[in-house]
């Protein structure tokens, strides 16, 4: 199940340079020291001494090499006249020598002269066994060219040599297996790297310790990989870049690149050399390596490095009204040459002369820099990683989203983003080029009398042929038009996978959307809309090595869905520049074998020919469907043409427009675009809408074009959501990015139409796909007319007798409820028989499996049910999504049996932490920490046995959530620390987890906050979840939960419920296999959930690798849920999923019933264990060879599946295959032990204490352990203010003051990193620059990104600027700061933010509560504020008092000059303050005030 | 869906009924008109459940949430389309169905259920009044001849479906009128016969041939039918009544309920019913034996005859007024049901065992000896009855009507020349409605034993699909539990 292409990594990066270009060994030394201080951002594998990778790039140490080569007996010419290649040769000596022979031959062939080889000295005595077993010998080759004298030309020729040799050896040398690797090959830079820990780099390469190794710049990188078999060559830096991040669109980028290669020409490379270079990228390499290859060719092709970086990682320009036009024009123009390489990224880059860094458009990675008065510039993922004397610092800053930072060592200065980009963007008249060449679809001509028409008489026939159901009309179309957004549903998906279903399926249903979890953040497409884009252009793409006006001669649309009118414009295109051609995508409906595949081949052939003849827009149309011609699924045709043209190197010569009748849901659009479509005309959807209006099923008062507009808007909304859940922000990079996993499609179809898509279980071939289409085609065109025909009923979203099968149906719901109410095990067996009885059909993958016969044991020998109870958890359901009654009943039941209930995201009433008199306990053992952080206080964390980080939810992985204001009553508001009546938003990402090392940090935070609790990370099954699980294990989680896609929900878009994520059978087996393969399985508990219904389900999960299980839906049904699927409407008629007081009274569930359920499940499991001869669960975990596919399956679809990947048993190789050891959380190094020591008197009797400490960036999560101890004694109350007073000096590590409890006062002199005051629970935090520093505090960075995330109470005073997302989801902290980055006060629900300086863009997005006061000195704030939810209000007297007090405190605590100045000129300053107030919040407050007045 | 909060806002409301005192003077329908507006409000109570238990509670698989929604949207045409797609005769079920759908309505867990039957009736009546119900004449014929034996609800449903599929259908009925039990079993005050005629007119217009007064197996040999038609569907019902073999059974004045009801239906239809042999309750002490629906119909009819007294007795114990643990939702519960006929007056007794009919010496019955019993769980684990000593007594009885169920269909007449197989209960044995004779199918009570009209219609529809499939290899008639685009 392991999917190598899904490996992820992320990292710490940085550089040190001397601005004036002065070379020294200290730069190298400093860079390495800095790297070592970011070791916590890297990771180790199963052995502590094997790192994931570390490396350094420096300028060529000419003198050193010259002397060393002389010792070896050859002379080096002067600098710039020779090149040095650092090479990892294959370890096998014969292979190595063959490679060397070829390299030497090529050196001669390309006009070079071989000067000699140098074996780079290494010392491997410290490195781990795994790393050593894979160790590759680094050698350096020295060459000079016989004719070329210009260094730049030399660099190009060296590049040709490198690529040529790599390709040649790759093709011709057996046994090489891609091993030969050029670490670097240049005349000016050199790289040392390996599978090392940061602190092993220097010892491993003694060169790096040599004082003669000097450089003016040094780029470093440490890697955190999600797997433990990173290869030596995957370490970074590469040739030009060090990358911390993830290219989400890499599959598409590589596909596009490979087809661009056919058009590649360059004045800098001969035709012959270009042949030697190709292919430029290599799908076998990592995303970062490919990005580096891309940068390399573009730079050597003549573009400046900064220009190249702007092309591949453009800023978000589309909706930025503050951006100068020349820059917008540049980005627009570049878009016609190159789609963005989209994803979170912090990239350091250098060509040996300029060194710089850039950040992705949304600023999803930290990058801090600092300039000293001795010309040293230090840039790193963390501030303080390299200690510098604070008195020497003249500037401290951070990279901002989309911004670039460049130091030109030749010019000896820092070039600002503005100056740099202005220079690049004005080199050509890009705007003029665009104006003259780019054509908007709006401007294309059309026949004047064109009008929308359709044939009503054949509408139903066509709807039937394309699989429309009455459910589509009601559930999809109606809400899309009426609400202009995606329809919402609730509860999980309990229908079969497409490949297991008896119902006719749309081809898209076989494709599951992938989503970001852990290794990369999803984006909030609503609140962070400004980084999203739907613009797309198509037509012919030209030679990417050049820039001419003709490059942008393309058709431009502002979103991808075309009305008939727009398509008509394309259809008639016939100009010297644009020609379109319609290709029919129907096939012979007679049922002939191979008919579909032949038709596909023919379509591809036609598309190829058309493209060769200069057609630049291909329209794939199924309009010619008839009785004898069935429509090919548009997705199949599009994918086939897309990949065929890629294979032929023609893809970029044309755009693909789809005109098809089978497109209606968002997911259909997403799959089409994901497999290459540029624009889509869903004509039948439009006709259906029109017809619905005629039938009065849609509002009559809107024009039909508006009807279509609403629908298009809804689809676009859904598309943005689908891209963003993968962390992709532009449609241009989503196009062709194939962000899907196929389930149930065979490799032949995949290879032809969806090449590169993961499809692990085989499935339908072309003929089977045809069979599925022809069933509906025959119904649409029956042999004799059918009277009174209607559309089919569907039954996907609602159980229907004629419809799709649901595991929870009237029978099973009834039996489950009755058996658990009566305590009737025999009746429960009837229920489980119904669920398990899949002899005829298989509703789940596990339905296809059976247990092998084994020697059984007596049931008395099997461990008692009490032991099994401990392995049960109830699924995460928040108080808010379900009623208090349902929530606490579940908690009581789980506590009675010794299992764990999960509080879900929404806090928990502290009253429940105390046991009741009758011994029952409503406290949830598992406390969830989700992206909204509602109610996550130190006391909440302390009162838990397990803390679960919810990375994703089965029903809507990669998406956030929203609790509408009307559901937030007094009680829920209090528990969530928010204002009743005000809506609450859970963001799609955790804003403190943008990468795996961030997750490790949060795990560390939580473990500090509650050392006794297990830390659990909840993931959702998808291709690649195994590598994520491995990363999670390396990040020190104690438990990893793999959720199936079918988990429940209180409210999710219905397309997400159906189309994202995979069943747990796939996820659990992949995770287990990958963990075992990585030797990481024995230190983590693997838990599974997602529609666990019977003992058999549990047994199969255990055999596939899970030792614990979560049960949610079945438990809810036991409590009375009857699968209304109306949770989102608050109308649950049985009082389960509602907050309505009257409805809650109808709740009839009892803890006894739930206890019965778990007892029955355990008993059933024990029976199976006895049957299979397992006495304990531990014996059973991972014994997948006990399972086999049920023989005699003759269902035509099921027969095509191959489940052996799920059943594969990874050899254990002496490692445990269930959790048998515990993680080393490294808490002994915590600074808090010293704090705790000092605070003893305070904890004992509240005595005030004082203390002072030095602090370093490696001191992370400071204050959490201490706060945990306070909570244990004093609960949510904490200590009186100012009881524990601590002063720190230095650079604080991440999460300074995290969850700090009331009674703590932390004063920090120096600076801090990300997550300052995260989850602050009442403490006071004060930070100001070091007393010796010289810079102006209010203009410099002092704390990092995401400060006060989810904070609930406390105060903070920050003398200086903060980074992005200041006060994100703050619900109670009062904070004063002197300037902030983008997205300030995002999702804030309470508290006060005072900003005495500039804010970045998108201020107050999603802010539903609290107040911000912004000192808008220059009157520019309104441009930066997102006013969707907030208003600017006049300052009232109360505001003035509050503000003055806070600013007064700020002066007092930090000595702020800005603040003092404001106070000194109070009346004038007041004029400049803007009060930012959320609209709903204000309404609620006013209403309350009024109520209060009435009472008084 | 209808109105998400409708069930919280509105109470269940049904049409009013005419005053029992006045209504027992005629045989007309007894419900008072109910406004469309009110029906729409009732439809708004539907919660459009994720798992609509009503939809499975209904033997026809009526797509109840969908038509409720259409009614709420006041799209009566769509509502009719949805209703007709699963039910050929909503005007019958809307009047006389015991509505298992309502018993399984999710709202019924803790509130009065949605008035589904009322909505069903309203849809079809509205549709008739607006002229939306039109004959749908198949524009083609397959050339296949199908005979349907019996014109009760299952026979009619089968005929309607088979005709829609393009087959030429002849319905044979031994009585003089079409309708079977609908016509001669159910009194007019529950189902006015114009309702049947209205539907029959449509069916005739659609091309179905009806042959009355033809008793297959008697007038026409069954094997001739089997030979001459491409397929035969047996829908003869379960007409053999269960008898009560106690002393005095042969006295005058003891009749099977169906004989009594049949006569009265004929009278209402203004047919000649000879004085001799007329069964009249007028001025008599009537005892109805059997507590079911047929018994109830006898009560209503006796009251209309102006009986001196009407007593209904039942062997089983008196059910509780509401659901008990034994009958949890969504099962069809054994509860005390008070029919409109009971409202008109009857003495009802439960846990009564009949001992003997007492003669008046002239060969007529004059009394019935009964005894109270109690039901107790015996050592076999099954309930057993025990007489209560000292409770023997005699009730005055001039007319006794036996309404204690039916045994099976009258199948002997079909089995004279062909070996039609029966099951252990005497019903016709089938596999997917097909009997052991390839082209002979069976549906309704004759196949499944005595049951509800709604089941009969459901059987007729499913059997028609089986016939169509047999004749054409493939059927495009809607199945209850399978989509037409199912790929298996």
Characteristics of this structure?
heterodimer, A: 1496 residues, alpha/beta, seven-stranded antiparallel β-sheet, 51 strands, 33% helix, B: 488 residues, five-stranded parallel β-sheet, 18 helices
Helix content of chain A: 25-40%
CA-based gyration radius of chain B: 23 Å
Main-sheet strand order of chain A equals: 42-43-44-45-46-47-48-49-51-50
- The assigned structural class of chain A equals alpha/beta
Poorly predicted regions of chain B are: none
Oligomer: heterodimer
**Coarse shape of chain B:** globular
What is the average per-residue confidence, as pLDDT of chain A, rounded to a whole number? 94
How many strand elements of chain A? 51
Q: How would you portray this structure in words?
A:
The complex is a heterodimer of chains A (1496) and B (488). By secondary structure, chain A is α/β, with parallel strands linked by helices. Chain A has 47 helices and 51 strands. The N and C termini of chain A lie far apart (68 Å). The mean pLDDT of chain A is 94. With 488 residues, chain B is of the alpha/beta class. Helices cover 32% and strands 15% of the residues of chain B. Chain B has a 5-stranded parallel β-sheet with strand order 3-2-1-4-16, sandwiched between helices. In chain B, helix 3 packs antiparallel against helix 9, helix 5 packs across helix 9 and helix 14 packs across helix 15. Chain B is globular. Classes of the chains: A alpha/beta (1496), B alpha/beta (488). At the A-B interface, helix 24 and helix 25 of A face helix 4, helix 5 and helix 6 of B.
